[in-house]
Amino acid sequence: MNELATIIPAIVGIIGLGFAAGWYLNVWLGKNKIAGAEERAKRILEDSERDANALKREKLLEVKDEWYKKKKEFDSDIQSKRSKLQSFEKQLLSREENIDKKLDLLGKKERNVQSLEEELRERQKRMDERTQELSRLIEEQNVRLERVSGLTRDEAKRYLHDNLIEAAKSEAAQSLKEVRDRGREECRREAQKIVIQAIQRTAADHTVETTVSVLNLEGDEMKGRIIGREGRNIRAFEAATGVDVIVDDTPEAVILSGFDPFRREVARVALERLIADGRIHPARIEEVVTKVRNELEEEVVRIGENTLLEVGLHGAHQEVVRHIGRMKYRSSYGQNLLQHSIEVSFLMGLMAAELRLDPILAKRAGLLHDIGKTVEKTVEGPHALIGYELCKKCNEHPIVCNAVGSHHEDIPMEHPIASLLQAADAISGARPGARRESVEGYVKRLEKLEGVAKSFNGVVNSYAIQAGREVRVIVNHELVDDAAADQLSQDIAAKIQHEMEYPGQIKVTVIREFRSVAIAK
Length: 521
Hints:
Blueprint: H1 2-149, H2 153-200, E1 212-216, H3 221-227, H4 232-241, E2 244-246, E3 253-257, H5 261-277, H6 282-311, H7 318-326, E4 331-332, E5 335-336, H8 337-354, H9 359-368, H10 383-393, H11 398-406, H12 416-430, H13 439-454, E6 459-465, E7 470-475, H14 482-499, E8 507-511
Parallel strand pairs: 7-8
Antiparallel strand pairs: 1-3, 2-3, 4-5, 6-7
Helix pairs in contact: 2-8, 4-6, 5-6, 6-7, 8-9, 8-12, 9-11, 9-12, 10-11, 11-12
């Protein structure tokens, strides 16, 4: 019993001690787990914070790059628009100066016309007075003649008629020639007056187109980037634009060479943008060239619309508007096709108004007469007939279509406006400096002109003067009389017109001189 009493407390003590040891061990293990969890959570938070900071810096760099790129594109666009605005301002200033000059000239002409009208009225008044005095004197003379001759007025008329009839027959041929020459001279003078008035009232700037464009660079190191590794950039650029890029020893400049002005302009603008952007590689080159080409096509339409507004026309088909805009990038004998067409349009309007024709149709025919030159080269045929078909397709007026197709006599003319178009086209092309001609071709044309004149019998010598606008022919007075000289000038002019090609017109002057010398001793 005593042993049991001793064992039970010992057992209770051992159990309590085991329970305390278990509780202590559990507490100790729980603290270790909490410390480990806190350590892992701390490491996770630190890693997350580092990743967040790295991602933040990366995004900031991407935003900054995108901002710099947009800023550069914005600056380039602003600079391009500023350049266009400056160009428009220069054009407006030039037009204002021209208008002021024209106003001054019109004012002077009006004053001259007023003074001439006053002088003519005074002369007419004096002529009326002299006519009345002459009629009175003739009547008095007739009365005296009747009294002296013993014949009545009717008898004297019949007697004079019988005596003069034979003389009238001999003089009829000479009178007919004089009347014909006088009529021809009056017609020529009136035609010259209309043409001169039209020329004086219009003016246009002419520029000689070239086949190269020069692009300035900020430094020669940019040439290497344009060429690219093993020339891949320059080959990609030439393939995309169809323009040759010449990189030579010219400091800080490259040359774009090509016969198509539209392609050269696309190449110039695209290369400027690539240089400004700084990213020059084949994929970027193709992207920029395509974008610039689309922008210039839109610019072509705007040019066509502005041209129609400038000449005072409207209601054109969209295809016609686009072809008018493409005239800016075409040339004819070195003369800008758009400026030439605008000048012909103004000339047509002025001459049509003088002749009481429809000036709107005339101006329209003048503006569209060379539109066939803007059609793609895959369409074959003379440009006049190509333009004729294009105008018919776009529902232009039949008179305009006929004038466009017949201004080089490819089809018959059906209206006076077609004849006016030939004259206006020749006037525009014949202006000094309007069209380019090589020295060799110019000399050959003068030699051929003199040779044509010398091929006629009786011609002693011939001289081409005024840059080939006139040829003076010296004839032998013993072989050619005055009547034959008149016919000789017509024959020479007809042969020149048949055998030669020349801008404008050529005046033929035949000179016959006879000298008789006597000496008094």
